[in-house]
Amino acid sequence: MTDAVHISSLGVPIPPSASAPAIIEIVHLTRTIDTPSHRVEILRGIDLAIPKGQFAAIMGPSGSGKSTLLGLLAGLDTATSGQVLLDGVDITGLTEDQMAEVRGRKIGFVFQSFQLIPTLTAEENVLLPAELAGVGAENEKRARELLERVGLSERMDHYPVQLSGGEQQRVALARAFVTKPPILLADEPTGNLDGKTGQQVLDLLLELNRVEGTTLVLVTHDPGLAAHADRIITLKDGLVASDVLKAKA
């Protein structure tokens, strides 16, 4: 007997065995760019539903649309057509101020290049999203606790230039979790790190994901990293080529 197919509120199929409600819904999503000579179709009608608490890895060759999809989920790019719903909020068509509010309440983002502010200390970098969301004071204790959890209790007052690449990425992880976002997006978070440090960052991602119950969507070229995910979504030529949900142990 096969598992029943779950359908999201917008009619998008959720993979069998994914019983939690969808926190991310992507409907007929397209992204095209017009050049002087032709139109480039980056995403060509993506439909996905990702349940709350799931760890989904997005894979595919360069140019398949992985980072573009993640940028659209974060509201850092604008779709040509289609819808993106995050925790029930349709972010397509929002103003920048409205999108900034959604990011502050619903999204944590970890970049491959860390994106730390060089003039701020590690603690100040972690606190920045909370301050932008208007909840900085109540998160000061949480910022310190997160930095302790990622092993940087002695480096809180250091600036990015004084930190190693692995330490900077751990600061970025703490920053992503400071506002307790229900969704964490990560773009090649171990891509610039050596093997040992990359494993440490992955372990921290998994630990924080499990402790906080955050939905994790991670873009990666690394099959070893993707193997830790609950679900592997593979893009090719702007379309979903495969969508595999691992069986529960």
Quick recap of the structure?
This protein has 249 residues and is of the alpha/beta class. The protein is 30% helix and 28% strand. It contains seven helices and twelve strands.
Describe it.
The protein is an alpha/beta fold and 249 residues long. It has one domain (52-75, 94-245): P-loop containing nucleotide triphosphate hydrolases (Rossmann fold), CATH 3.40.50. The protein has seven helices and twelve strands. The strands form three sheets. A six-stranded mixed β-sheet has the order 8-9-10-5-11-12. Strands 4-3-6-7 form a four-stranded antiparallel β-sheet, with helices on one face. A two-stranded antiparallel ribbon has the order 1-2. α3 packs parallel to α5. The model has no long low-confidence stretch (mean pLDDT 86).
Spell the H/E element sequence. Answer: EEEEEHEEHEHHHEHEHEE
CATH-defined topology: Rossmann fold
Q: Compute the gyration radius: what is it? A: 18 Å
| Total number of distinct structural domains | 1
Give me the CATH superfamily.
P-loop containing nucleotide triphosphate hydrolases
User: Which class best fits the helix and strand makeup?
Assistant: alpha/beta
Number of strands: 12
Strand content: 25-35%
Largest sheet: 6 strands, mixed
Average pLDDT, all residues: 86
Helix content: 25-40%
CATH architecture: 3-Layer(aba) Sandwich
**Shape call:** globular
**How do the strands of the widest beta sheet line up side by side?**
8-9-10-5-11-12
Q: How far is it from the N-terminal to the C-terminal residue, by CA?
A: 18 Å
Which class in CATH terms? Alpha Beta
Total helices: the number is 7
pLDDT under 50 segments (min length 5)? none
